[in-house]
TrEMBL record:
It comes from Advenella mimigardefordensis (strain DSM 17166 / LMG 22922 / DPN7). Belongs to the LysR transcriptional regulatory family. Gene3D superfamilies: 3.40.190.290, Winged helix-like DNA-binding domain superfamily/Winged helix DNA-binding domain (1.10.10.10). GO terms for biological process: DNA-templated transcription. Keywords: DNA-binding, Transcription, Transcription regulation. It holds the Pfam family HTH_1. The keyword RNA-binding does not apply. This is Transcriptional regulator, LysR family.
Length: 300
């Protein structure tokens, strides 16, 4: 069974329609010598003379005309395939797994997801918001949005913004003037080395807490119950019902937010589409992340 190069066929079709070696080379943007070599290779592959060469140009032999007629449906099929591939690139498909925090997912990404789905109906997004970071090295996620850089690995990293923190208190406690009796709600032993826990312990309001918890949800619940001040990301504290901003975010913990992708997935259409969605969403939420859009009254 003969193996025929499609590139050689493409060069043949163009030259046959152009009528000369020079015109065909110009159309293909190659040198006449390269085109001549390609045509000779095709004739060798087929064992047939396809062109009658003369000083006035290249005219098709009987075999050449028959081959050109046979190539037309092949050319049409190839063009259809190319168009389909281009359309697929415009409408990427598949599942993209995003590892991020519950708060970024719930407060920023999910509220904006409907417009993304309307634009890319064939992409499915799986949010992984486990308390423990997902291992990107194990390919458990396609991309991640985190406040910590990967230590090593074949990753592309982009800084998306800053997550700023501030001090919050129950509005009811503040109105009862009991705030001076309270300290900052603590973090349980397993979480004491988190940047937010260390920042809370370094605050002037810190004292040995009567209550220690292990999640931001519990920090909010404890503060809402009047058990103390909560050192929270502004993204969380400003959205929590019943809490007011006491101090910050100036002078408080600020963490860079990173978008992390595998090197070999950066140009995958579905991953790139989701990455662009995340970049745009966090840009829109800059005020929420940095505490610029404050909910409640600042109490000094």
């Amino acid at each position: 069974m003969r193996t025929i190069s499609w590139d050689n066929l493409r060069f043949f079709i163009t030259t046959a329609r152009a009528g000369s070696l020079t015109a065909g080379a110009n159309a293909l943007r190659v040198s006449p010598a390269t085109l001549s070599r390609r045509l000779a290779n095709l004739e060798f592959e087929l064992g047939q003379l396809l062109f009658a060469r003369s000083p006035t140009g290249y005219s098709l032999t009987k075999e050449g005309r028959a081959l050109l007629d046979s190539c037309v449906p092949i050319e049409n099929g190839f063009n259809t395939l190319s168009s389909s591939l281009e359309a697929a690139a415009d409408q990427p498909t598949g599942t993209v797994r995003v590892a991020t925090s519950e708060n970024i997912a719930n407060l920023i990404l999910l509220p904006r997801l409907a417009s993304f789905i309307a634009r890319y109906p064939l992409i499915n997004i799986e949010f992984q918001t486990d308390a423990q970071p997902i291992a990107l090295h194990g390919r458990e996620a396609d991309l991640a949005v985190r406040v910590s850089m990967p230590e090593r690995g074949p990753f592309k990293v982009r800084t998306l913004g800053s997550l700023r923190h501030a001090l919050y208190l129950s509005e009811a406690v503040g109105s009862n003037s009991k705030e001076g009796e309270l300290g900052i709600i603590g973090w349980s032993e397993n979480f004491k080395n988190l940047p937010i826990a260390r920042a809370a312990m370094a605050h002037s309001y810190w004292r040995m807490p009567a209550v220690k918890v292990s999640s931001l949800k519990s920090q909010v619940a404890a503060a809402q119950a009047g058990l103390g001040y909560a050192y929270l990301p502004c993204l969380v504290g400003n959205q929590a019902p019943g809490l007011v901003l006491v101090d910050g975010p100036e002078g408080y913990l600020s963490q860079d937010i990173y978008l992390i992708l595998h090197d070999d997935s950066v140009e995958v259409p579905r991953v790139r589409a989701v990455a662009d969605f995340i970049v745009d969403s966090l840009r829109e939420a800059k005020g929420m992340l940095e505490g610029l859009s404050k909910r409640g009254v600042v109490r000094k």
